[in-house]
Specification:
Blueprint lengths: L5 H15 L10 H35 L3 H29 L1 H20 L4 H33 L4 H24 L4 H19 L21 H31 L4 H29 L1 H22 L2 H15 L2 H9 L7 H30 L1 H4 L1 H14 L15 E2 L33 E2 L1
Antiparallel strand pairs: 1-2
Length: 452
């Protein structure tokens, strides 16, 4: 072989390797990517603010409708039916219509329904509004998490926990707005209408910034397959939702009644959990980047189990507050991390993977708190809550079987995806797919995906 030909041949043979090697850092300062991140953050904050405002005004709405505890509890199951309907619907259609179209339908529906629901003075419109609320909430939840996965890919580093922190902060802001409005004598419908108007204007400005849909052509579309990894992730999501939902429902009752510390101590225990969860989500992306997804889930589960053991084992109000704070820190990033993994499964579109994980969570929120209540009736609340320690241990065990997507795996849209090589390989970042996230070369990240 002539010597002069060697550099040309060498460049030719090395070029595919260079193109296939994942770029560990994307240009997260790109204006397009910043706008996309802001738009998706608003969706999370919008859902949090709406649910927080509604929760704060429930006592007033309940008084309007004149329902006792038993009837109110029965009426609120209507939202559960609506949420299940939308979860199944989204799992079926999201690869066909894309998450952006679904969020543009769900977010306005949630905002419009909130004041109508709050204006109910009879059980019939109340139940109807609760069905729509449950439907709209989950019609928005899965697509916005799928969009968060798109932004995370483009950013080239974990960002999902920050999005979920926006939900938590929005929920806190909505709750505070409800308290202020109630103190000022504003009826619930007026307050939720005002909240919705502000959020609606922000949504109108940012809707065009959302990551564009990458709808899969019919001839390339694959049927939803629940792979072993997706089933594993759904199981982790189920256990995480059991811990989180049950802690929200029972932590205050445990401190106030089981420990006999009174209502103030109960409220403090729940506040410790909620505030710690916000903090955990604000810093969680850095932890995931440092440890990797599987190890961060395992570490979170161990921290959760330790917090529960402290709260339940010591059995004092101070230990309960400290223990539930650890539970909040440990629970904060498990579900966002699971969504990130589910949205990056080979052979599955991001929205479909997130939908499977969301479906896995659903039974826990429905059955978890009543199950603990039934066990508490048999053995006492303190003994019943040890079930959550078992659930946290189960998460730690299952996390050991989590596997990152393989190099060049298809993402379910007919495009090959770069491997997640970040923190799982000790590097600390995850590779994004520029064109699928709708940022491409305009965002300065190049074409991270190619047609198979």
């Amino acid at each position: 072989m002539p010597l002069a030909a060697r550099p040309l041949l060498q460049a030719t043979t090395l070029e595919p390797v260079r193109l296939a090697t994942p770029v560990l850092r994307r240009d997260s300062s790109s204006p397009v990517l910043r706008r996309q991140r802001a738009a998706v953050s608003l969706l999370f904050a919008l859902m949090g603010a709406t649910t927080g405002s509604w929760a704060a005004r429930i006592p007033d709405v309940r008084e309007q409708v004149s329902l006792d505890d038993a009837r109110w509890g029965l009426a609120t199951t209507a939202s559960t039916g609506g949420s299940l309907l939308s979860l199944v619907l989204v799992a079926v259609v999201i690869a066909r219509v894309g998450p952006r179209r679904l969020t543009r339908l769900a977010a306005p529906l949630l905002l419009i329904n909130a004041p109508l629901l709050a204006s109910a003075h009879h059980p019939v419109p109340l139940v109807a509004g609760l069905v729509v609320q449950g439907f709209a909430t989950n019609l928005l939840s899965t697509p916005m998490n799928a969009q968060a996965v798109q932004v995370e890919r483009a950013a080239g580093r974990p960002v999902l926990s920050t999005f979920h922190a926006c939900f938590s902060l929005g929920q806190l802001a909505g709750g505070l707005a409800g308290v202020v409005a109630a103190s000022a004598g504003l009826v619930p419908a007026v307050q939720l209408a005002a909240t919705g108007a502000v959020l609606g204007m922000l949504l109108a400005v940012t809707a065009r910034w959302q990551p564009p849909d990458d709808v899969v052509p019919a001839h390339e579309r694959t049927r939803l397959r629940v792979t072993p990894q997706l089933a594993l992730l759904a199981g982790i999501a189920l256990l995480a939702a059991l811990v989180e939902g049950t802690t929200v429902q029972w932590s205050a009752v445990y401190a106030a009644d089981a420990l006999g510390a009174g209502a103030a101590a109960g409220a403090a225990a729940l506040a410790c959990f909620s505030l710690a969860m916000v903090v955990g989500r604000l810093v969680g992306d850095r932890v995931v980047e440092r440890l990797g997804r599987a190890r961060s889930i395992r570490a979170s589960a161990v921290l959760t189990a330790c917090g529960l053991a402290l709260a339940l084992g010591v059995g004092t109000p101070l230990a309960a507050g400290a223990g539930f704070a650890l539970v909040g820190l440990g629970s904060a990033c498990v579900v966002p991390t699971v969504f990130g993994l589910a949205g990056n499964q080979p052979g599955t579109a991001p929205g479909q993977g997130v939908a499977v994980a969301a479906l896995g969570m659903w039974p826990a929120f429905l059955l978890g708190p009543p199950l603990v209540g039934a066990l508490a009736g048999l053995a006492g609340l303190r003994s019943a809550l040890w079930l959550l320690v078992v659930a946290a241990a189960g998460i730690a065990v299952l996390a050991g079987r989590v596997r990152p997507p393989a190099p060049g795996s298809d993402d379910g849209t007919g495009r090959a995806r770069a491997a997640e090589v970040g923190a799982e390989a000790g590097v600390g970042t995850e590779v994004g797919v520029g064109t699928e996230a709708g940022v491409g070369s305009e965002a300065g990240v190049g074409a991270g995906a190619v047609r198979r």
